[in-house]
């Protein structure tokens, strides 16, 4: 107990020691009473729905059914408030939204047990995906990054099996570290030295967690992105001797050539930003930029894969609105399959890092689910080229091609099972998200049939586990931003993919590295005709009562013709296209089945003839042994 010494001024002269002690005790009691009253008042004025460490401890320690129900009800109310403050529908820009408080409370509520933890992580991931990047978010992003690293290194790795919470934590870490890397590129992290030092402590423990997720490329991708971004923003390097992350030695920089805190981006990322900017401003002059982009695709083979990975997200966001960008994305991805086919010919440096391959599959699945038109969604799944036009040297890296990339001749490829894993994992999530959209049942059925056929021929257990992991992720808690009473929830808001992250990151980077766009405003054209004076009222009245003229011969012929059929609406046209794809696929299957049955019938005829001939020889042999005759039954002896 602390000793409180209160000075006593003896204004009335010298007093006795006994009276002095009594006075001091009385003053101490008054001080304690005032302090207790102050605590009671502060606790009385505190909000019962305030997120504190004490609330989280009480929630996790509740054992009685009444206490559990009370704490669960309070947690639901807190999450409802966080949904409103996160500004989901207004992208965090409304007067009632408070992203800083909402994100802080959500990352704290993620320490609770059960469905409350999963729902808090879902709301936080969706909100961070939709919100615009703001410099005021940087301290909170560091705090979220530290929390994610702590939970992965201390809690998640200790589990004997994979749980859905680890997948959500990895997705949250991916989106938060990508935002930090974007702020690093624009030079906004130089003043946060203390936060970077704290983040370094958690990053040093992250490499030990890689071995736990080697069989799950979707989680291992997030781990590698967090490590790569952490090394860059915290100036770390991997020491081979000690097998640990260490601080880099400071390198002198020429101040005249570079401003402090300024970062450079790769030319490949710069051209992807330029394409995205043209699409956002409804510009169609993309041919030259796309040709330059193909000249720079050598950056995809380099060891520093973070800028190309960011470029994939940005190019995928542009491909959702422009089909030529999707064609460019598929042409770039054709190097994946061409490398696998020619893996014995090419050198090891001419190959994509597996992190870019996994990101490419994720971005392509996002385009297939959230493309602005049905053609974009269809071509993201099946590609632009027909199946007969594809060959080993000219393959298209659509989702369907990536799913079927594994064959007997390329089964020894190092990254081949990862490609099939990512394709299955993302296609299963697309099928789940399309369940609520009846207008796209044809696309969902085509994807489901493809997955069903692939499952019957796939023998790699690692690829088969991808379906189970995807189903465990999507069959968890429902989308917290969709009301349970709504009959047709919007399919555009998905927990499976980062739908808006590419556009949010591209907007901030384009403001830094691209020149501002000056919109063309056409001037009003002057009327070249001379001014015609108004007609008199008498002439106007005369024109009004003018009798209608007789229709011409052309008009009479047009009247005799039947009226043209009404135009086909968008939904009917989409259903017809998808039905055509399904009918083509069924025709191919029927043709293959008929050929197989014809072969089986011919083979059966050959076997029957052979069987009859053997039976006849056996009968003749027994007859010869019995009668000792070599003549046939119908021949005379």
From TrEMBL:
The record ties this protein, via InterPro entries, to:
TMEM232
Task: Using the UniProt annotation, give all residue ranges assigned to the region (Disordered).
Answer: 592-637
Q: Give the Basic and acidic residues compositional bias ranges.
A: 592-628
Would you say which domain of life the source belongs to?
Eukaryota
Question: Which Pfam families does the UniProt record give?
Answer: TMEM232
Q: PANTHER family this protein is in?
A: TRANSMEMBRANE PROTEIN 232
Q: What is this protein called?
A: Transmembrane protein 232
* Organism of derivation: Pyxicephalus adspersus (African bullfrog)
